[in-house]
């Protein structure tokens, strides 16, 4: 089904939808190094264990003065089956009763957190991730929503953005109806690939009919936005095979698509050791798949938001990008800017004003901290003024695909060209190679530069380690 483009105007200093890049495989391969995805700046590698529960408590209390709306993230770590590509924090079990002790600790964390927050602040955004949130029974989901509402006060505003990640193998039309009754208005379905050979190789056999049935019901129920997750770079994928998946996905007509680059890092993520490395597509084939993906999705009317995200022109992500209000957080791109993000659950990360705080990735440590009556914060960071300036600039680059140095100067009361003189010097190679244009105070990524936006952002990173190979995925 073709997607109808919206006519949209954009002011001179806002990012416009790009033209398709002139494909230069040699250039892309030359810049295809490892680097951060910049869901935060500084990245999680800079978090330290001298930052603890008391520091996060103080940050929560300071944040009340801003009266910013809240965004809540709830991590549900349970999965019935492990997908071999997965790099998430998860626990494999088929026993939903095992979730009860976890939900009890989750409620304890809500209580401890809400004691330090002005709970009249509007909860504009809610996101359940995992793991597999739909691992929970319907009654368990209701219980978590009731507890969230009791502790923070959930919103019924039509503009709220309440999303949940769904495994189509673990949900049905009754699940969707229940989620709608709980207040969710956006869903994200994990698909990865519709090729049965690829699905078998990643231990995720998922016939198209499961996804299609859920999408049909979600459209009928009036969910505001549907996202499908795809991954390229998986075993046995080819350009032709992934093009077939894309044709089917375009026919399903989701509002958003996330097409992630698979990062094969078996030394860090044990499930990936079940993937035969010789079955992975070559670097050349992966670039061909990416090229095909961009061509097919943009031809179907999708806007390439940035990196791995695509959206229809009438979706809130595309609208936010046109209006210059797009934000980037730990869940990727977000249309709800300027929220304080509170993460709940094992491994969850919070972003509250000038602070990042992370919970333990180990379930036992998470539970032990809460059983002692304190927040489970195990590490974090309070940002310096320089960190805040660079976070702002990197976020605008990742979201707008451009930086207006005059605007930066005004926002931070600095001489931005002088402040970033060393950065501009580091970007000279990218300028020569046509990845970025520098006109007056405006730095703008070119269409080919948008594909390498992570590389451009790295020039502004004052915390970047000298060796990024072992810690980060490749850019393309």
How would you characterize the overall build of this protein?
This protein folds into two domains: 44-344, tm_1862 like domain (pyruvate-formate lyase- activating enzyme), CATH 3.80.30.20; 384-458, Arc Repressor Mutant, subunit A, CATH 1.10.10.920. The chain is an alpha/beta fold and 476 residues long. Helix 3 packs across helix 11 (363-371), helix 4 runs parallel beside helix 5 (173-182) and helix 8 (239-252) runs parallel beside helix 9 (283-299). It contains 18 helices and 19 strands. It is globular, with a radius of gyration of 22 Å. The strands form five sheets. It has a nine-stranded mixed β-sheet with strand order 9-10-8-7-6-5-4-1-13, with helices on both faces. A three-stranded antiparallel β-sheet has the order 14-15-16, covered by helices on one side.
Assembly classification: single chain
Largest sheet: 9 strands, mixed
- The CATH architecture of the largest domain would be Alpha-Beta Horseshoe
Number of domains: 2
How far apart lie the N and C ends? 28 Å
- Per the principal axes of the C-alpha atoms, what is the gross shape? globular
Q: How much of the residues is beta strand, in percent?
A: 15-25%
Task: Specify the CATH class of the largest domain.
Answer: Alpha Beta
Helical run tally: 18
Round the mean pLDDT to the nearest integer and report it. 92
- Helix fraction, binned, reads 25-40%
- What is the radius of gyration computed over CA atoms, rounded to a whole number of angstroms? 22 Å
Low-confidence stretches: 1-17
| Structural class by helix and strand composition | alpha/beta
